[in-house]
Each structure stands twice: as C-alpha cells, then as structure tokens.
Amino acid sequence: MAFGLTLIILSLLAVPSLLLSRRPDAKQYLDKLVPFQGWFGVICCFLGIWGIIDCVLSLNILGFGMWGVIYWTLWLLCSVVLAGLGFTLGYGLIAKHALKGEKARAKGEQILTKIQPLAGKLGVLGIILGLLDIVAWILL
Q: What are the DSSP calls for 57-111, one per residue?
C-alpha cells in the first residue's frame, strides 16, 4: 500500500498539471513539495531499482496461480515506473553527486533524454498503477 501511495505522490509531482487542472488550490501544497522533489526522486529511483531486483528474485510468486501472476506483473510495472519517474525528478542530484566522469554524465544525459518525453505518460501510468497497487493490497 505504501508503494502505491509513493507512486501516486511521485506521479503527481511529475505531472502537476493533472492535479492543478482539477484542484487549483493544490498549488500551495505542491509548492511546498518542490524543494524536496529532487531528493524524493532519488529515493524513489533507488526504491524502484530495488523493487525490480526484488521482483526478479521473487519469481516464485508466479507459481501461485493467476493472482500470483497479476501481483508479480503489477509489482514489476510499479517498480519500473517508480524508477523512471524517480530518475527524471532526481536527475539533478544524481548528476551532481553520483555521476563522476564524462562518460557517466553522458550516459545519464542519454537516459534522461529518452525518459523525459515520456514523463507525462509515466505520470498518468504511475497514478493508475498506484491505485491498482492499493486495490491489490486490499484484495490480496
């Protein structure tokens, strides 16, 4: 459930126009989160990468029938979107503190240019997957 909530919050930070179009008063709350957006992105990027690794290590869940397959697939998709959005939002801090050397910075820029145009779609997908994760947590 916390995974789904984290994904929803990260998605709203990535695509604030969705929230602001429906609730203009939410701008004051988003403005409070913006200074922490980079750190939140970095933490979520690492959580997403750890989720992908943990998902691959937990392939035995696929043996639990249809619900196991659905849960595992949802887990993997949520982790991939969390890592992608986290990288997008936290790239400034990642480049500043982790990417030392020209090759690493060039590779980071290359990844960012591939992910950046998809940020809006990843944000919408993140909201949907976050809600599905919460529903799956309640049902399973």
A: HTGGGGGG-HHHHHHHHHHHHHHHHHHHHHHHHHHHHHHHHT--SHHHHHHHHHH
